Amino acid sequence: GFEKAAELAIEILDKIKDRIEFSSKNIVSLVMTAMTTLSSRIINVNKQKMAEITVNAVLKVADLKRHNVSFDMICMEGKPGGSLEDTEL
Q: Using an 8 Å Cβ cutoff, are 62 and 73 in contact?
């Protein structure tokens, strides 16, 4: 059951996948992709800034040659009294 479903899911994803070309100097496509995932009303006004911060955070810990990202090295800290406009990397 589960293994067959996983195989089928991988086949479907292989058919619909899209390759996104980028470099550490040209992150426009990554920012655009990140912006599509940030759809809450709370973040909508700051979507561009938050997408850029997200992409830059991932690129800082990514090993692009090995296609590896250490997500454990990325964390977000909330500060009392701050707003989204105060967000920085």
A: no
